[in-house]
Amino acid sequence: MPVNLPLPVATELLPVKGVRLGTAEAGIRKANRRDLTLVELAPGSRAAGVFTQNRFCAAPVQVCKAHLETAETRALVINTGIANAGTGEQGVANARASCRAVAQALGVPAEAVLPFSTGVILEHLPVDRLSAGVPAAQAALKADGWFEACHAIMTTDTQPKCASRQIQIDGQTITLTGMSKGAGMIRPNMATMLGFLATDAKVSQSLLQSLVREAADLSFNSITVDGDTSTNDSFILIATGQVGSEISELSSAAGQTLRKAVIELSQWLAQAIVRDGEGATKFMSIAVAGGKDLQECRKVAYAVAHSPLVKTAFFASDPNLGRILAAIGYAGVDDLDVDGIRVWLAGGGEEVLVAEKGGRAVSYVEEAGACIMKNAEITVRIDLARGAAATTVWTCDFSYDYVKINADYRS
Amino acid sequence: MPVNLPLPVATELLPVKGVRLGTAEAGIRKANRRDLTLVELAPGSRAAGVFTQNRFCAAPVQVCKAHLETAETRALVINTGIANAGTGEQGVANARASCRAVAQALGVPAEAVLPFSTGVILEHLPVDRLSAGVPAAQAALKADGWFEACHAIMTTDTQPKCASRQIQIDGQTITLTGMSKGAGMIRPNMATMLGFLATDAKVSQSLLQSLVREAADLSFNSITVDGDTSTNDSFILIATGQVGSEISELSSAAGQTLRKAVIELSQWLAQAIVRDGEGATKFMSIAVAGGKDLQECRKVAYAVAHSPLVKTAFFASDPNLGRILAAIGYAGVDDLDVDGIRVWLAGGGEEVLVAEKGGRAVSYVEEAGACIMKNAEITVRIDLARGAAATTVWTCDFSYDYVKINADYRS
Q: Which residues form the active site (chains A, B) (predicted)?
């Protein structure tokens, strides 16, 4: 059961002018499932992306990066079933071939198509079946296709993840709709976190590029389920330019309004992945402040968020202070003065100081911590008391079901 | 059930001349259990240690470090039940007081006593009860006390860990006996990995210091159960100087013989902790070769060893190549050429090349991998093909029982 993750409602997913989506059953790996999604973008659309840092970078990621650099983007093609990762030169050729199939159908250059794959690693993409499915996906293209699309890109997700926002810029209504998928950072076969966010605003390429980077850092790059980074992770920000005049300055009122909406929706999409994390029963925010720089805040936040001992303690609703302090202590911040650190637990509207001066806070009684730990959403707030940097990382707990899901043989 | 970890046999644990050990029930946290161990060392003994890098370094570790620098070492006092970690200034005072109690009983300076604590974090050490137990432990001192001692230092270990070796140096028989404890790197309450290794050889202080550092790096610093580093981890190497003439040069024949024995026994003691790892059903060696330097070999080995997805796959006996490759890919070796990497799985006397050229090896059939994964001891061998550095890290798999053990509320 995902933690506080609402199911998408078709009528609440708002079309983005210039975007049409269609899905089809291409039989990529299994029959009778919608495993092919086509996203068509109006002429003049711009796209920017951030991708996995994994050295085993999947073929579609390589092709995506190259296509983003060489041409305008007119379509996305997304398949589930096979990740086309660890597939060498043949994999790259297959990713290119799937772009060509879409390009021919839509009458655009092959470089205008971005490919995304998620599914089994180390198996080759059946380009013939994918290509044969393109006409059906094309015939299904519609502006309100987000609801079907967010279902079709799922692999081991227990539910689809899709949401919309609207903002006003210069008297115009701008729409943003995004969808994401992913449950563990990588699955035995079902790899990959994918995120797509489209707006009908007109955004300069350079602003779009800086927005996708900042939004990714504050969202998809600030979550962890199990610390594993997939070979296929991709986040794409699209601006179709159908509404309003061009926004090119981040510092302008329009730029700030757009930035806020993009970050918020990105965070919602990223947090949705954590809420649907494999075996998750708790949604945890690790908020670190008072750091000398962002990097040490992230080190501490991720040390806590990745600790199997902290994660199992949260599963058990155990306010296990020792595990949290130990994780902070081994985060790799060399000159950390543990006597200055304070730690709070918060949840259900309550917040309790649990640690200070290198140990348990004098005022802390374990019943108060235990009470907070019963909530489904808990924040660990850490003040390093040595600077002004801050960051927040989101994760989930570690349950029997995580082991069960990941120990099951590939099916 | 520990993985291939023989129970210590009392008659196989050899006394080390100059070392006597005694245990007692001090009632540190619970009644009716031997929770206090005293180790008495003959005059002229030398000791050297390596300790946790955790910034939340426990009080006994702080006192140990200070005492090692200021005086000869004549005794160790080890208690279970309470770790005396996260206890601030009072904790340091308590650790010093326990040293004084032992010092008075043995007629040695307080600085000649090294304290070690393992157990519940964030609770204060009951110094009165510990001190009251010292006479009984002193009365029990005997040269063949290793068998009782290795039982008395256990916390959540499912079985004691102790072993002996003998070597010949210049016609003299040198004995080495060591014991260790630890099951997870840190437990909710039952914290700490401890290792003690004593020899009756006469070893110069500088050689002892370099030996303990090298042996720790190749043993206790090359294992991981869950990636969590305790606040109390300590490894102490003792040379009582009762047998033979002084060994001061590592490059001498005597130095090399001693070095080999110290490293081998340290590795046995460290691997014993992994074999008894919380919920372990498999013993995994991650052997990385062909690196540019040791650091990148360790990065890759630990990325594989820490990956919850790799560990759950091993629990499931699933030769999940994609997870191993992905872990190598995100290990943080920036310019890694994945096309050059080769990966083998080995076990039960068989070895199979599973990956090369960025993907599955052409010769690999999954049945061969599946066959190897059925063994209780498995090696993942990785060749980075870019240099001459190599290292091996040992770990265990990740089972339902790991979550069960660590999600149980502190008992």
A: 192
Residues of B in contact with A53 (CB under 8 A): 330
Instruction: Classify domain B283-407 by CATH architecture.
Output: Roll (3.10)
What is the pLDDT confidence band of residue B172, given thresholds at 50, 70 and 90? very high
H-helix or E-strand spanning residue A239 = strand A234-247
For residue A167, the distance in angstroms to the closest alpha carbon of chain B comes to: 37
B86 vs A contacts (CB less than 8 Å): 321-322, 325, 355, 358-360
Summarize the annotated binding site of B as residue ranges: 155, 181, 192, 278, 406, 411
For residue B370, the chain A residue with the least C-alpha distance is A409
Question: For chain B, where do the domains classified as CATH 3.10.20.340 start and end?
Answer: 283-407
Which among A112, A113, A73 is positioned nearest to A239, based on CA atoms?
Answer: A73
For an interface test with A, give the residue of B190, B226, B324, B330 to mutate (most A CBs within 10 A).
B330
Task: Quote the tokens at residue A233.
Answer: 């992770």
pLDDT digits (tens, 9 = 90+) for A34-88: 999 999 999 999 999 999 888 888 999 999 999 999 889 999 999 999 999 988 8
Q: What does the pLDDT average to over B159-173?
A: 96
CB A134 within 8 A of CB A36: yes
Contact criterion met (CB < 8 Å) for A360 and B86 = yes
Chain A residues with beta carbon closer than 8 angstroms to that of B408: 316
Interchain contact, A410 vs B320, CB within 8 Å: yes
Write the pLDDT tens digit of every residue in A98-140. 999 999 999 999 999 999 999 888 889 999 999 999 999 999 9
- Which residue spans of chain B are classified as CATH 3.60.70.12? 10-275
Residues paired with residue B119 on neighbouring β-strands, in sequence order: B81
At the second CATH level, the architecture of A10-275 is 4-Layer Sandwich (3.60)
Q: Where are the strands (E) in B204-341, listed by range?
A: 223-224, 234-247, 283-291
Asked if residues B305 and B283 have their Cβ atoms less than 8 Å apart, the reply is: no
Residues annotated in a binding site of A for substrate: 155, 181, 192, 278, 406, 411
Taking the CA of residue A331 and the nearest CA in chain B, the distance in Å comes to: 8
Looking at beta carbons, which residues of chain A come within 8 Å of B325?
56, 86, 121, 231
Which member of A308, A316, A325 has the closest CB to residue B409? A316
Range A243-265 average pLDDT: 96
Alpha-carbon distance B319 to nearest alpha carbon in chain A (angstroms): 10
d(CA A144, CA A202): 20
> What does DSSP say about strands A377-383 and A19-24: parallel, antiparallel, or unpaired?
unpaired
Rounded to 5 degrees, φ, ψ at B391 are: -160, 165
Residue-by-residue DSSP string for A351-409:
EEEEEETTEE-TT--HHHHHHHHTSSEEEEEEE--S-SEEEEEEEE---HHHHHHHHSP
Backbone phi and psi for residue B249, each to the nearest 5 degrees, phi listed first: -110, 120
Give the one of B88, B121, B228 whose C-beta lies nearest to A327's C-beta.
Answer: B228
Per DSSP, what are the bridge partners of residue B164?
B177
B88 and A53 within 8 Å at the Cβ level: the answer is: no
Closest CA to B55 of B85, B91, B99, B93: B85
Helix-helix angle A400-407:B308-315, to 10 degrees: 70
Query: Alpha-carbon distance A349 to A114, whole Å?
Result: 44
Proportion of chain A above pLDDT 70, given as a percent: 95
Q: How far is A341 from chain B (nearest CA, A)?
A: 10
**Per-residue H/E/C for A160-209:** CEEEEEEEEECCEEEEEEEEEECCCCCCCCCCCCEEEEEEEEEECHHHHH
Catalytic pick among A156, A192, A240, A379: A192
Beta-carbon count within 10 A of B43 CB: 11
